[in-house]
Design brief:
Number of domains: 3
Number of helices: 11
Strand content: 15-25%
Distance between the termini: 35 Å
Radius of gyration: 26 Å
Largest sheet: 10 strands, mixed
Oligomer: single chain
Order of helices and strands: HHEEEEHEEHEEHEEHHHHHH
Length: about 400
């Protein structure tokens, strides 16, 4: 950061460590400000905001690192999918960029998983992040989407204007809607009869063809929607279970559940497919933006460094999507790297490279129009000191 800002020779690196460990600023306030900026510039007015949730592990070593422990790491090599480090829950806003066909996730909030506290629950952190985003965007509907790990009793308490879409577990206990009251004495039933397992439910549910766009491809698949209760997770709130049939002729390939009222199958399927963009954003943050490379150990520094990096990533992508993009960027990139013959869209690395060039060019451009150019300064020096200039 100091080298990029041209302050490496002016400021000591201790000043950067002080900024993360002792300065007075709140990473949540910073993330919510970026969320408002992203929605205002990239999400059309009146449309709901899709928030993708996922967690990732930043590997660290040492006993004195705050909140470091052993966590599940799906990217770990070998049969033991575990790793030691800091585990973070990431909330990203899914948008459509003008230069990219696939959905893009822009991370805005990040929460550290701390064992033996309330923050040890990833779902607890995810629910509060989506609630904070909903509070920062009044009047906007929030569609939270995550994998099956983010389905639990924490979701029994609904958040206003927030719907939740996850992958349904195979052993989920589904029930029918509660029957109408008969007028007899006693407490009314909270749920109906137990529904069969998903395999049997797919055999009796009517599948209809729907056209969906997933992972950059448009295809027609079979889908069935069933309104029921998942009482152990969402309580008495009705949910819609969507079963997809793509490769298999019988049964189902994917089971999704959403709390959206009267949700149709196609938007739910596309919304869950767009969740994969947060995986791409996490990978870009590690490989391109250097997330997790800082070696700070203090509690406040650990809790602030990753959210600040996510903010830099969000601002970079947002800048490129608004004034930074130009249709000729891809052709210029292919001219510099002719081996990329199939390149038709800018990557995240191209976005950061262009921002870097713009920042460097701005340092050498005059801040006012009346300032002399380099050629004018050189000519004046030749007149005043003809023997001093070589």
């Amino acid at each position: 950061m100091l080298a990029g800002a041209g302050l490496a020779r002016l400021w000591s690196h201790d000043r950067a460590h002080w900024f993360f460990s002792r300065a007075r600023w709140n990473p949540d306030d910073l993330g919510l400000a970026v969320a408002r900026l992203v929605v205002a510039l990239l999400v059309p007015a009146g449309q709901p905001v899709t928030v993708a949730i996922d967690d990732t592990l930043f590997r660290r070593r040492g006993r004195r690192i705050w909140a470091a422990s052993w966590f599940h790491d799906g990217s770990a090599q070998g049969p033991a999918k575990t790793g030691y480090g800091n585990n973070w829950v990431i909330a990203a806003i899914v948008v459509k960029l003008p230069a990219i066909r696939r959905p893009a996730a822009i991370p805005v909030l990040a929460k550290l998983v701390i064992k033996d506290t309330n923050s040890a629950s990833r779902l607890w952190l995810a629910r509060r992040m989506t609630g904070a985003i909903a509070g920062a965007l009044p009047g906007r509907a929030i569609h939270a989407v995550a994998d099956s790990a983010y389905a639990g009793r924490e979701l029994k308490q609904p958040t206003p204007r927030v719907t939740w879409t996850t992958r349904l577990r195979k052993d989920a206990a589904l029930y029918g809607l509660p029957p109408a009251r008969t007028g007899s004495r006693g407490r009314p039933r909270e749920k109906g009869d137990r529904l069969p397992c998903l395999a049997r439910l797919a055999g009796i549910a009517p599948f209809t063809p729907v056209t969906v766009t997933r992972y950059g491809k448009t295809a027609t698949i079979g889908a069935a929607a069933v309104t029921c209760l998942w009482h152990s997770v969402f309580g008495a709130r009705p949910v819609t279970v969507v079963l997809t049939r793509d490769r298999s002729r019988t049964g189902y390939d994917l089971a999704l559940v959403t709390t959206g009222a009267a949700a149709s199958a196609a938007p739910v399927i596309e919304r869950y497919a767009a969740r994969w963009s947060v995986e791409v954003a996490i990978q870009d943050s590690k490989q391109i933006f250097g997330a997790g490379q800082a070696r700070n150990r203090a509690a406040r520094a650990v809790e602030r460094t990753i959210p600040f990096q996510r903010t830099c990533q969000a601002i970079t992508v947002t800048w490129h999507a608004t004034p930074g993009h130009h249709p000729a960027d891809v052709h210029a990139r292919r001219a510099r790297a002719p081996w990329y013959r199939s390149k038709t869209q800018p990557s995240t690395a191209d976005m950061t490279a262009k921002l870097r060039r713009v920042i460097i060019a701005a340092r050498f451009q005059p801040s006012r129009r009346d300032q002399p150019t380099c050629e004018e300064i050189y000519a004046i020096r030749l007149v005043l000191q003809p023997h001093a200039v070589t």
